[in-house]
User: Fold this.
Amino acid sequence: MGRCRRLDGYTWGVKETFAVIAAILAIVGNIPYIVDIFKGRVQPHAYTWFVWTLVTTIVFLGQVARGAGIGALPTAAAGMFTLVIFVLSLKNGFKHVT
Assistant:
């Protein structure tokens, strides 16, 4: 139960479907924030986004190490965006320690 169809010999099921949907939501959810960075509406704090990038990377690597498989896809998608926002914050963000 829970298996939908086969793609090139791989059984695609509910787990895979939810992982892809969650990854898409992670991507779509971050796009407006990145647009606002470019438009100058927000100034992300570089140190905060560095910490988020570090934490997300550690979680993703832990998931992969423990065999999460496609379940790690949403974390990878979110991690890519935390890294992108961190890099953008170095140029367009707030860098002072508060």
